[in-house]
Amino acid sequence: MNISALVNPVSEGLPRRSSSNSQIIPPSPATSVAKLPTPPATTPKAMPRKRKLRDPKPIWAYREGETLEGEAREQYEQQQQARPSPPPPPTPWQPNHPPSAQPPSYNQGHGGPQSSNQFQPPPAADELHGFERPVSDDPYVYNELVRKLGEFIMNTVVDNNDIRYALEESRHTQVEIEARWGQIENKMTNQRLAGVHETECILKATETHNFRFRSTMTLDQHKRTNGFLNSQVQQSKVPGVQRPNIDYKHVKEIDVFYDLDVPSLEILPAQTRKVLIDSLSHGASSIRLRVTRDAKTNAVLRKVIKSRVANLEISSPQTEWDYRIGVNLEINYPGDFENLSPTVEPGRSSGSTARSKDRISYSWLGAYQIDLTQVIQEHGKNHELELELEPTILLEAGDRALQGDDRDFEKLMTGMLNNLRALSREITGPPGGA
């Protein structure tokens, strides 16, 4: 079956495509990024029941060979005494098993450090050797971008009491960790962010108010991405290949949005309701219910409230796309929606928010899923590319990292960034155009 044929070509005008040349878009001389005023620092509102900050840093942030100090060492020793015996090692992955409709299962068996006097994470498979080894002879030197992403996910998800209480309160509440491909644009010039940097960098949270993130790609980019991902599915299923299966599914759905008032939230669990109401005082314009139906049968598939928790934005000037890492809370709404009125955006009709989605999803390792989606709304068509990280695996790996066993957490962060980079570099055309 030719999966790429699922993408329907259109003849209308294409969205703006950033130049594929390494010199992406020069900054406007009138509004250079370097000259944008820096807003005054503000003191964020303290979150209730937030754990105290670790001084000088959490256990999971210690590198191999570093000695735990103070409270971190005491906490580690207490955790090791209370920790049960590790389960037997997992069975090695077998590449020759028959293809399965479901992603391969994720084995969670791990052992702990061997010494209570010094934190000794297990040696990485990609230890530094030969000319790569630094003067300190460290077997591993952490990646700064990966570490910053890890801190963001740790603070907003794993070590965020409000989120964890909401998740424990109801099995119908989930946390979503997604990354989007798109462009970071200057609000004043409507041009893609450009400045003194030539390589990847994370934007300061205090500067993002000067920019917007636009998640879109051209039809040609959509087709090229579809073709590349289809080839990866086929290559992963070649007998004897040393890689996990990549599975896909194709769905067509319709989303309709409804506004919810505070009284309509009373049927939700207490902590979940508190998070949603707090979002209104932190800049959210409204609380929306998204009702998703099957495009063929019109059956209701999901009723979800999506609440933004935090965003992290990464500029990548050498490729077609920048990235936004988003953390959201998704709550399955148990109430009725038939008597609710659809959301109406200013200056648009009552049906303008309805979205028709033609989506192909690619998943592997039980940890990652890439969604390639064509979205049709009343005011036009858009093509979107997203990567989701499976929340259960993330939370389990994050909790182990807080206990001193960082076998998977940093690897998940590295994998997330590598997936973003791999697709961006594959689809970005050569300098001067394809």
What general form does the structure show? globular
The whole-angstrom Rg is 23 Å
Query: What is the H/E order?
Result: HHHEEEHEHEEEEEEHH
Mean pLDDT: 78
* Percent helix range: 10-25%
User: Into which percentage range does the β-strand content fall?
Assistant: 15-25%
* CATH fold title of the largest domain: mRNA Triphosphatase Cet1, Chain A
Just give the CATH class of the largest domain: Alpha Beta
Brief summary of the model shown:
The chain is built from 7 helices and 10 strands. It is of the alpha+beta class and 434 residues long.
Topology:
Blueprint: H1 70-82, H2 144-158, H3 161-169, E1 173-186, E2 201-202, E3 211-214, H4 219-236, E4 247-260, H5 270-281, E5 287-294, E6 300-315, E7 322-332, E8 355-364, E9 368-377, E10 380-389, H6 391-402, H7 409-427
Antiparallel strand pairs: 1-3, 1-7, 1-10, 2-6, 4-5, 4-8, 5-6, 6-7, 8-9, 9-10
Task: Give a verbal description of the structure.
It is built from 7 helices and 10 strands. The chain is an alpha+beta fold and 434 residues long. The protein folds into 2 domains: 50-81 and 110-141, no CATH class; 144-429, Alpha-Beta Barrel (mRNA Triphosphatase Cet1, Chain A). Strands 1-7-6-5-4-8-9-10 form an 8-stranded antiparallel β-barrel, surrounded by 6 helices. The radius of gyration is 23 Å and the shape is globular. The model is unreliable at 3-37, 50-55 and 86-122 (pLDDT under 50).
